[in-house]
Amino acid sequence: MATPERPLSPFTDIYRWQITMTLSILHRITGVVLALGAFGVVWWLLAVSASDQRYAQFSELAQSLPGRIVLGGFSYCLMYHLLNGLRHLLWDSGRGFEIKQFYATGWTVVVLSFVLTGGIWMLALQHGAAA
Amino acid sequence: MSAPGMDKSMRNPLAQARGLGSAKDGVHHWWMQRLTAIALALLSPWFIWLLLSLLGASHAEVRSTLANPRCALPLLAFVLALFWHAKLGLQVVIEDYVHTRWMEVALQVVMTFACALGALASVFAIMRIVLAH
């Protein structure tokens, strides 16, 4: 067994809530969701490669209300994970470790993730209306 | 309890007794996760643009767009980077949260096979689109 003198870090619920902890766990959650979404990309590619009929089935499903909700979820997860991933790459370069910077980049990620997802869906719905 | 001079060791005595050190592949994991992240940071915006441009297109139009090497090659790069990055990330999530050894190993095996299968199926589908064109 572990020696009792080993220093232990308290569990996360001992700390006051900070946005940084929510952003951190969201990075993992969105990553796991996107890994599932990767299989949606495979499904799409297989449908395109298979036949007119299979592609029509896929398109119909993707354009249905449940399909749009799932795609909406994936698009938000992708925007969040992409932006917060850039934040991680910034840290890897040794920058952004001031407490103020953690908050500034964190909130930037939150705001931009919503703005970009909204922008993508505006474009998509315009396209859909034009088609 | 502990031997003299070892009081400040951060290692678990059992780990010390087993004498197993680092397998030295942690840095490789870290580095590949970053490399695939950079690839995906570049390719994901392109992939979203591709999907948006294909909205409302017929099956024949989608096929011919994807069959073009200018599209098929970045698409191959995207799916390979995607499944590689997913594998590395899911591996760490499993390591962190699944503490029953047999379950952890089983999940790692299933997850790795699933990611490999996803990558292979994507490559197969893209090749079929390109070659049938």
What does this structure look like?
The complex is a heterodimer of chains A (131) and B (133). With 131 residues, chain A is mainly alpha-helical. Chain A is 79% helix and 0% strand. Chain A is elongated, with a radius of gyration of 20 Å. Chain A has 4 helices and no strands. In chain B, 17% of the residues are buried. Chain B is mostly helical and 133 residues long. Chain B starts with 12 loop residues before the first helix and ends with a helix. In chain B, 78% of the residues lie in helices and 0% in strands. The A-B interface holds A 1-3, 5-6, 28, 31-32, 34-35, 38-39, 41-42, 45-46, 48-49, 52, 55-56, 75, 78, 82, 85-86, 88-89, 92, 120, 123-124, 127-128, 130-131 and B 1-2, 7, 10, 12-14, 34, 37-38, 40-41, 44-45, 48, 52, 55-57, 59, 62-63, 66, 75, 79, 82-83, 86, 89-90, 93, 114-115, 118, 121-122, 124-126, 128-129, 132.
Tell me the layout of helices and strands.
The complex is a heterodimer of chains A (about 130) and B (about 130).
Chain A: H1 19-50, H2 52-63, H3 65-92, H4 99-130
Helix pairs in contact in A: 1-2, 1-3, 3-4
Chain B: H1 13-18, H2 26-53, H3 59-67, H4 69-97, H5 101-132
Helix pairs in contact in B: 2-4, 3-5, 4-5
